[in-house]
Structures are given as structure tokens and as C-alpha cells.
Design a protein that fits this description.
By secondary structure, the protein is mainly α.
């Protein structure tokens, strides 16, 4: 990396850049880069998790997919995001920040447009919706390019805050799409393309909706974001070919930090993608022990139990997790990341253990069902909280453990592997069942607590961070 005295500019590429030199560091350019790329990353997460907001409603809209098919569809963006991140992790030194962010943002339009078209009528074959779910993973893949490239612009002392803000605000895209979808679908005046649909929910009269709004509303913002990225961003001259970037795999800490980030972001992304579907199947429209019949003829078998509408709750988990990442990022700069990763692991063990009993709803009475749902909801929110704390702390650790170019590569690699969270969560819940899969989560978190303590957090640790 070039470290001349002044960060001279020549077109797209900076001719020199040394953020560790306080006298020459252009903080205005760094923070502008952060805000522009964070806007783009938020939209990337919107595109990535748009399927999670739509899939639980496909059958009420007229499709007839099985529970297993829906779980696999919700898992597909996680699988593709992990694969795309393996590509995007090597792009920052090759394409530079401006080209990478601009082109990636334009690619988000394809899957977003496809979902907007295909929710209008229940005629799409399963393979086509699976393809759209796969393409939505491009939004997840962006993370492994955006985050490393942003880290190049900031000194190590500020990377915890900068990366925490970018990742946390980017993660808000998950809550944003899940929170706004129930409202956007009710506005007929937003439906510039296509007609209305009729949705039938148990115990409720059929409702006229415009589900394409949930997708089409984001496309103009994606175009604006791409234009902003192309006109406002620069690229840092960090040059490394693909082979040179793979030297991170000879470092033990690369693999240990991967395990820790699977615990944190793997948990966040996996739960965020499957939260609504899991809630619906356990306590709502998917629980055959609770609801009988369909549409307006549906009846609640247990008097006094109101089947929860998952759209009223599903955004809360990602909101808590993203908020924790933003709020705790400055604390990691002050106190170090390892201590908070330890807190994250211990909190995940406790919150997962608290949630497990609620994964088997007690249908003997309305009171037990309501109590179980409350325990499920609060337990899940606690899991999101501690996962969000760990997301912030691990991204503080990596720049402290590795030199600048390697830190960017490790951030991209760990993010790529953790992005498989939605896929493995969907597969695990489908094949093992929720209780067994959550139990594995406790074991994994306990392993990560030991690693964090022995390697990074204890007094005289080999790699304090």
C-alpha cells in the first residue's frame, strides 16, 4: 500500500493513502465513503432478505408449497450469499471501491424486480422462485466486498466504530424490509405495475393487497445508490492478486475468527431469514394443532388463543441485532473486542437455553400457548441481542489481529462463511428439528467461549484484541 505524505487523487484511484498518519488522513473522504457504502449495503440487505418477508405469505396468496419447500426456499439466499461472498471477498483490491459498490448495487435490481413480478399471481413454478431466492443472495455477497474496502479508509483505532456502524446500519435493511412490507402492500396508489391480489389468513376475511409494492419500492433507491457510488467514491491503492490474498489461510487466527463469526453473524443471519417462518409454523398459521380450516372459515381450536400475525413481530429480531451492533461498536474501540465476544458467547448460551422449551408449543390450553409464545419471542430477541454484540466485537478484533490487507481478507472470508447461516439454519430445522438444532447452537457457543478466553480475552492471551 502506498503511504506518501498526501492522499493525492488521480481519477478513481487515490495515488497515496495512509489512514494511520493523522496529519494527512482525509477523514472527510473516509466518512463520506462510509455513509455512501452503508446506504448501498442497507439496500443489499433489503434485497437479500426480501424473500424472507414474502415467503411466509406465498401460500396465503394462493401458492401451495409444502412446509419443507418453504424452508428450503427461505434457506436458498443464505446458500447463495455464502458462495457470492467467496467471490466478493477478493474484489476490493482488484476492482476498487467505486466500481465494486456501483456494479453490485445495480445487480440487486434483478432479483428484486423478479420477486415483485412473481408475487402478483400464484403461477410461478417452484424452480423459478428458488432461482429468484438464489439471486437474492447477491445482496448478502456484497458484505464481503463492502466491509473490507471500507476498512482501508480508517485507522485501526476507529475501525471498530466505522465497521460497526456500516455493518449495523446495513443490517437494518433486514428489519426495514420486514417492517415496511405489511404497510407497503396496503397502498394501492403505490401499485404502478400490476394489479391487486387477495390474501386469505386463518380466521380473517380475505384482504386485497398489492405485494409487488414490497419489491418495486426499492428499485429507484438502488438506481440512486449506484449513481451516488459512481460519482462520490474513490478507491484505495491496495493491490493484491487472488493468490496473494489467499495467504490468510496459513494463519491460525483466520480459522478461529471464522468459528467466532459463525457464532455471531451466522446466528443473526440464520434467525433473521427463518424467524417469520419458524414463528408461523410453531405458533401461527402453520400449526395444525391450533388452526382448522382456511380463509374466512378457519376456526381456532383452543378458545381464547389469538394466532399471531408474524409480520407484526418478525422485524423485531433483526432490529435488535442490528441495533446492538451499532450501539456496542464504540464500546469495542474503548474496551477491546475480545471481552465483548466473550459476553456474546455466554449470552447466546443462556438465551438459546431459555428459548428451547418454547420450540415445542404446549397446545393443552390457550394460557400455555400464549405463555409459550411469549417465551419464544423474548428468547429469540435475546439471541438476536447477543449475536449483534458479537458481530460488533469480532469486527473490532480482526483489524487488531491482522495487518491491514490481511484484515480485509479475513473480514471478507469470515463474513462469507457466516453468510451460510440462513441455509444451514433452514436445513437444520428441517432435518433435525428446532430443538436439536438449537441444542447444537449451545455447544457451538460454548466452544467459542473457550476459544475467545484462551486465545484473545484472558490476561497474557497470545493475541489480545
Amino acid at each position: 500500500m502506498t503511504t506518501d505524505a498526501q492522499p493525492r487523487r488521480s481519477g478513481e484511484w487515490l495515488e497515496a493513502w495512509d489512514p494511520e498518519n493523522e496529519e494527512t488522513w482525509d477523514s472527510h473522504l473516509a466518512w463520506r465513503t462510509l455513509w455512501v457504502t452503508t446506504f448501498a449495503l442497507t439496500l443489499a440487505f433489503v434485497a437479500w432478505f426480501l424473500p424472507s418477508a414474502l415467503i411466509p405469505k406465498l401460500n396465503p396468496l394462493g401458492y401451495s408449497f409444502s412446509t419443507t419447500q418453504l424452508y428450503w426456499m427461505a434457506a436458498m439466499p443464505g446458500l447463495s450469499a455464502g458462495l457470492f461472498r467467496l467471490v466478493w471477498m477478493v474484489l476490493p483490491p482488484i476492482l476498487g471501491t467505486r466500481k465494486m459498490v456501483s456494479l453490485t448495487t445495480l445487480l440487486l435490481i434483478f432479483s428484486t424486480l423478479g420477486w415483485g413480478v412473481r408475487v402478483q399471481e400464484p403461477t410461478a413454478p417452484y424452480w423459478e422462485l428458488m432461482t429468484l431466492a438464489f439471486l437474492a443472495g447477491l445482496g448478502g455477497g456484497a458484505f464481503s466486498g463492502f466491509m473490507p474496502s471500507t476498512s482501508y479508509f480508517f485507522p485501526k483505532s476507529k475501525q471498530g466504530t466505522a465497521l460497526g456502524l456500516q455493518a449495523g446500519l446495513g443490517n437494518f435493511g433486514v428489519s426495514l424490509v420486514q417492517l415496511l412490507t405489511p404497510y407497503l402492500i396496503g397502498f394501492s396508489w403505490l401499485a404502478f405495475f400490476g394489479g391487486s391480489q387477495t390474501i386469505s389468513m386463518p380466521g380473517k376475511a380475505p384482504q386485497e393487497v398489492w405485494y409487488q409494492n414490497a419489491a418495486f419500492i426499492w428499485i429507484p433507491l438502488m438506481v440512486i445508490s449506484a449513481l451516488m457510488s459512481w460519482t462520490m467514491l474513490k478507491s484505495v491503492p491496495i493491490k493484491a492478486n487472488i493468490r496473494q490474498q489467499f495467504d490468510i489461510f496459513g494463519n491460525t487466527d483466520t480459522w478461529l475468527m471464522t468459528l467466532l463469526y459463525i457464532m455471531t453473524f451466522g446466528t443473526f443471519s440464520g434467525l433473521a431469514a427463518q424467524f417469520g417462518l419458524l414463528m408461523a409454523n410453531l405458533y401461527g398459521i402453520g400449526n395444525g394443532d391450533i388452526v382448522q380450516g382456511t380463509g374466512a372459515e378457519a376456526t381456532v381450536l383452543i378458545d381464547g388463543y389469538a394466532v399471531p400475525d408474524v409480520v407484526k413481530y418478525v422485524f423485531l429480531g433483526p432490529l435488535v441485532g442490528a441495533g446492538a451492533r451499532v450501539l456496542f461498536a464504540p464500546l469495542t474501540d474503548r474496551m477491546g473486542g475480545a471481552k465483548w465476544t466473550l459476553v456474546s458467547g455466554l449470552g447466546l448460551i443462556a438465551s438459546i437455553a431459555y428459548t428451547i422449551p418454547a420450540l415445542t408449543p404446549d397446545t393443552t390450553s390457550a394460557a400455555t400457548l400464549e405463555s409459550g409464545f411469549d417465551q419464544f419471542l423474548w428468547g429469540m430477541l435475546a439471541i438476536f441481542l447477543f449475536a449483534g454484540i458479537g458481530n460488533a466485537s469480532t469486527f473490532k478484533q480482526m483489524p487488531m489481529i491482522f495487518e491491514r490487507r490481511q484484515a480485509g481478507g479475513v473480514i471478507g472470508w469470515t463474513a462469507a462463511i457466516a453468510a451460510f447461516g440462513p441455509f444451514f439454519f433452514g436445513v437444520g430445522v428441517t432435518t433435525l428439528g428446532p430443538t436439536a438444532f438449537y441444542s447444537i447452537g449451545i455447544v457451538w457457543a460454548a466452544m467459542c467461549v473457550v476459544i475467545t478466553w484462551m486465545r484473545y480475552a484472558r490476561k497474557d492471551a497470545p493475541r489480545p484484541s
